[in-house]
Amino acid sequence: MADAQLAQEWEQLYLPLRPLCTNDFIEGVYRRPRTRALAGYKYIEANPRNVSDLLVVDIDDENARAMALWEHAHMLPNVLVENPANGHAHAVWALATPFSRTEYARRKPLAFAAAVTEGLRRSCEGDKGYSGLITKNPLHQAWESDLVTDHLYSLEELSHWLTESGDMPPASWKRTKRRNTVGLGRNCSIFETARTWAYPLVRRYPDRSEESSNDLHRKICAKAAEINFEENSDPLAESEINQIAKSIHKWIVTRFYGWTDGATVCEANFIAIQSARGQKSGKARIAKTALLEQEMFDL
To answer: What are 208-256's pLDDT values in tens digits?
Structure first.
């Protein structure tokens, strides 16, 4: 049961105004006004649609409390919400500054936040399949909830301590294409895959007209939706996919040299790049042939 201090702190940390909530996932998940959701539902949406300030790890173990606190002296979770029936818990870390999940300009912090969340999961052996969308409501009487610390973290601070403990994932983690990514990782994975696919598509448009721009946007939307359903067992909402596609399209038509420099320059650059690659490949083949001939001569 939540105490007054936890209730007051949670009121400050919790951002959604009309969160998804439920008491039984079989009966469905529905949006309710904030006050009603916090007062009467066991499970609530952790963050609003467009920003996040809460990082949540699901620990499906009877020793979840100890796992969330042990060796976390410098990065204790702010709130711990435990199921008294089995000991499983949600550990919640709160950020001093929320980060956007939609704008391209904040894509780098989003990828960083995904890596930090993965580090937190590793630090307490959390559930790999947890999406981070719905969390246990710490104010509901069904759970044993504790305010562990009122310190608000920065992503850089959490990353520092996770690196110190050896739990922060390596840089290669965010570059690896993984199927069935979850949480913030799904968003990053779809964005990275779709944008890489979209760049070469620019060459197919002989002009930079509004019609071409709109067609490019439609194709990016379709590709992002395809990636979403093919690579994720728990697909993102259509609104999030549309926002990802919008971010990619906006960057291409305003900042990508392949579009802004015009079709002629784009084609000339492409030919120059292909030519350089061909020359490099040719030199490598000549060097390899010479080496083989020398080896045969030595025999």
So the answer is: 788 888 989 988 988 888 888 766 656 777 888 888 888 889 888 888 8
Q: How many helices (H) and strands (E) does the chain have?
A: 11, 8
pTM of the model: 0.65
Pairing of strands 20-22, 43-45: antiparallel
Q: Which H, E and C letters describe 234-251, residue by residue? A: CCCCHHHHHHHHHHHHHH
> Is the CB of residue 124 less than 8 Å from the CB of residue 59?
yes
Count of residues in the chain:
299
How many other CB atoms are found less than 10 A from the CB of residue 146? 18
Q: Answer yes or no: are the C-beta atoms of 121 and 128 closer than 8 Å.
A: yes
What's the number of CA atoms in the CB half-sphere (13 Å) around residue 170? 2
Output the CA angle 241-37-93, nearest 5 degrees: 65
Nearest to 204 by CA among 192, 193, 220: 220
Q: Distances in Å between the alpha carbon of 142 and those of 1, 26, 54, 194, 269?
A: 7, 18, 21, 42, 63
